[in-house]
Predict the structure of FAD/FMN-containing dehydrogenase.
Amino acid sequence: MVPVNDFRETLRGTLVQPHDKGYHEARAVWNGTIDRHPAVITKCAGTADVIAAVKFAREHDLEIAVRGGGHNVAGTAVCDDGIVIDLSEMRAVWVDPRARTARVQGGSLWSDVDHETQAHSLATTGGIVSHTGVAGLTLGGGIGWLMRKHGLTADNLLSADVVTADGEFIRASDDEHSDLFWALRGGGGNFGIVTSFEFALHSVGSTVLAGPMFWAANDTADVLRFYRDFARDAPDELGTVIRFGTIPPLSAVPEELHWRSAVAINACYAGPVDEGERVLRPLRGHGTPLLDLVSPKPYLAHQGGLDSTVLHGWHYYWKSTDLPELSDDLIDVFVDHAFSAESPRSYSVLFHLGGAVSRVDDDATAYTGRNSPHNININGVWRLDEEERYAESETTWTRRFFDALEPHREGVYVNFLDADDGTQRVRESYGEYTYRRLAEIKTEYDPHNVFHLNQNIEPTV
Ligand SMILES: Cc1cc2nc3c(=O)[nH]c(=O)nc-3n(C[C@H](O)[C@H](O)[C@H](O)COP(=O)(O)OP(=O)(O)OC[C@H]3O[C@@H](n4cnc5c(N)ncnc54)[C@H](O)[C@@H]3O)c2cc1C
């Protein structure tokens, strides 16, 4: 048993231990396949609690897991036996509309940020599912609807407040601890616990032209060939994500289309609606869409539009890779594999990068992969009560699809790595040069690898 009484006294937040009510809810993360039992969960109320928790963990030699939104598919936000430093109750967001900046606490979700920034018709690039955590997403890079116009989430980071492995509080920005600031923009949770982020915001208005268009799965090759040319010339304002899978039973979808296999191009135009209508017209007019749900809508509604398709507690298995332009051979792989999952919840998503993401110098941040036009995330999905029926088939489907992409693979986005991807893929995700630079900074800020439950960068000593 870890002696927590004195520690508890030092906290403004709460401690949860295995015998406490709420322990099982507190240890659960987004991916229901993760089932770990920490000795202590510290629900921090503020930075002082984070500092106290790091010091306590070091004193008692406890393994540390850090929790932001709890979304990481590999389940790195929770550990067995050690301590979870849980920031999920630190979700305040302060917007300065004049300066167009927001300060965001380290346990915030994207829905928190969008809610506060949209009160001023502002936004910054966030994830495409609004219950994802700001912290993990930003620290890995951050891709989303607005990235082609406004860059990665990490490109919009102005400063970060960090509690180091020694329990010290520092601020990292271009002017202070600039090496650490470089590493935080892509290097993940390796360097300290971020208690707040400061972001640049942009005027996006409160209404965007956005939504999905669906075509029958049989039309995939034709749709992707058309999309390849369309996307190449698309303005930065247009963010698109292709989803291969079944049509979710959302209220806006006619019942006869529920669960039907389809290729969906989901779009968000970060500019005037009439301009977006013009840009999207050729795509919307292509072939015979089953359904077109593109319309002017609140940005907030679009940001939350996919939330119910990836619920907390379902079981997930992922594989991901960056990809080049859509060659005919690559399109054949999608046609052969994208629709052969057995679970109707399994899907894959192909992001269109480029634009502002690719215009930032490769070595300006630790994020790697700026020159890849696409990345794909293949997601095997099933519910707990479907474990026997789907766990094996969906894992196999995910791996087979991923293996078939082998000749086309470029790199991988670190935030999409699953638990079995291993250290080699972390290195692959950064490339030798960036990995080495990250390892040097890790050695400076966390030489004993206190923060190792993550996509780990090993210190050089
Ligand atoms: C449904 C879904 C949709 C997604 N969509 C996108 C997307 O559109 N774009 C995108 O870029 N990514 C996306 N992701 C991936 C996402 O970026 C990662 O899963 C990310 O790790 C989530 O962050 P989190 O804070 O919720 O994670 P957590 O599981 O809480 O944490 C993951 C790791 O991040 C680190 N960490 C967390 N909080 C802190 C902190 N305060 N300080 C320091 N380190 C911390 C720790 O190392 C921790 O192990 C998506 C994930 C899911 C599950």
In short: The chain is about 30% helix and 25% strand. Residues 422-445 form the longest helix (24 residues). The mean pLDDT is 97. The radius of gyration is 21 Å.
